[in-house]
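Recap from last week: sequence in, structure out.
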Amino acid sequence: MFSSLALALSCLLIISPNASAAPNLVPAAGQSIPLIRRAQPQRTVADWEAWAKNEREVLTAKYGGNMEKRSTGTNLLTNQNADSSYFGTVAIGTPPVAFNVILDTGSSDLWSEPFNIQYGSGAATGSLGQDVVQMAGFSVPNQVFGVVTQATSGLLNPPVSGLLGLAWQSIATSKAEPFWQTLASSGAWTDPVMAFQLTRFVNGSNVNDAEPGGSFTMGFVNSSLYTGSIDYQAIPTTPSYWLLPMTSLTVQGSSISIPSGSSSYSAIDTGTTLVGGPSSVIQNIFAQIPGSQPGTGNWQGYWTYPCSTAVNVAISFGGPSWPISPADFQLTKISSSQCVGAFFELNTSGSAPNWIVGDTFLKNVYSVFRYNPAAVAGTGGGSNAASHRWGVSWAPIVGGISVAIGAAWM
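Predicted structure tokens:
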């Protein structure tokens, strides 16, 4: 236990916008957890530049008890800032107080702050505490979480006040067992899996301030959200991140050469908006798109391409090749003719994986994360629009490691 921690950008923060507010009701057991999406205000090119620079810097920093059995549960999600992030709700304390948190399979800590505080890309300092944490009808009585006392501005956007880590204990800064892992290892779930369905609004029009973001389920896979069978792929290492080896990558129908072995490891990360990878491979991706140019200034590490080009990318992690919608490949338009791609150059170090695969991909599949045996899985194709989406299914594993990916619809 640490009395004080210097938290990097990768840390999960939970911050109450008003600690004295009346607690929100906790969802009943066995219900789904909606993911809610809030429409972003109209962004200028300068806004997008600042966001893109911050996204790349944050991701670079991020990667360098007794329980009552509830069976299954769902947390509905909110889609924030045009697919920039997806958040759900957890309740902490007695009586419970609700916090909006980003659900992040790329980290393993839960962090909370009882004060109204502005977060930004940077560091946070705080101490560890323990209390009851509840989500979707499940409860862990002595969950360890961080109580943040200081953080730099801009790290999170209201009404989000923190993050809930859904990766493995081995990478937890607090060294504590993550909320999800306690539930899975104790047999609280009917099946040792958790799954995400993420909506797309990045290409929508007349988007309301709040939009459905999809769902996060624990203890079961919602078969109504995907087609075909789930393709489970085993995690190749001791559990840490949810890792899968990238085995093939195609752009506009052309195969891109990618490294094999540990150099191909990809973290499947719901807390990341885009897809980051080795500079040489990203450069080869855009070499297949006529008119592409490397970004400069705040766009360094990103690439521009003609907006008139529909870019078709597909990725395989050892099973089927999963297509990414051209709408998701297009991050934003910076002029009447030029757009910025959602794949960017990311050079990690140490034990961090070379690829970080975020929501740009995950919106196109129904993702399932399995605790035992640890794996990620997937199913057949679908379509993802504001009213009809794609999804990847990932299942958590108990006593093993594997990942499944599949296509889903909504």
